[in-house]
């Protein structure tokens, strides 16, 4: 039986870049067709919906299902300067509601400004076009802007750089939802070089966020920022407002992982990014992601990735 398709919502707003809006729809259509052929699926595996925000801040789903929210929402780039009009407040409120309901949020270029309006980027790394990086950092001083990266995947929020990086973001989402091989074939079909993402020969940690347990979801969002701190099960349970035993049961049901396993996955994902994009020693990386004992974290990394940190960097390091 074909599973229910993952829905990706594309958000149209005043002065949105139409090439990105329609290009992403085409990319996901091609990826879905490839995946269906490979799996001999009877129905679609990806579904694209179109959401519109007008100049008065009114938001609606062109498909008419306004009560539902998609698994992912993409805020495409714009051909105009970073917006500051009144409608952005309504859009930010809408994005916050979707995120609280489990939607993964993504942006391209100036779309990062609209995500930053929600406050959800506070304390996180984000990227945008290099020429707007200083503006983003000045307007939203709690956001850690890194314009050197094309895509920053922070689990529940993903940002991409300049106008044409919608192709990078699209392939990243295809990889997360349909796997590396479908991503590579989609890139080939579109004549978009996917080699930068071929490095993802191992599964990317994509935490479950649409399970409907608001208490557990609040802990997941908190852990996404606090992964390097001293966070234990009792602190997580307190954050969720639950007794320890109840928290453990509900966390396992919602995420499919024990809290310790979940935190290890988050830290390994952060370590992978540092191995790929910096020349920091693994001891320093271990410390940065919250492990005082590099030997212990090395064992966790090898068990999770099937490669030593050195081998991983030699294969996938970009610097």
TrEMBL record:
Pfam families documented for this protein: DJ-1_PfpI, HTH_18
Record-given protein name: AraC family transcriptional regulator
UniProt keyword terms in alphabetical order: DNA-binding, Transcription, Transcription regulation
Protein species of origin: Labrys okinawensis
HTH araC/xylS-type domain residues: 217-315
Coiled coil: none
Entry keyword annotation includes DNA damage: no
InterPro entries: Class_I_gatase-like, DJ-1/PfpI, Homeodomain-like_sf, HTH_AraC, HTH_AraC-typ_CS, INH-QAR
Top-level taxon of the source organism: Bacteria
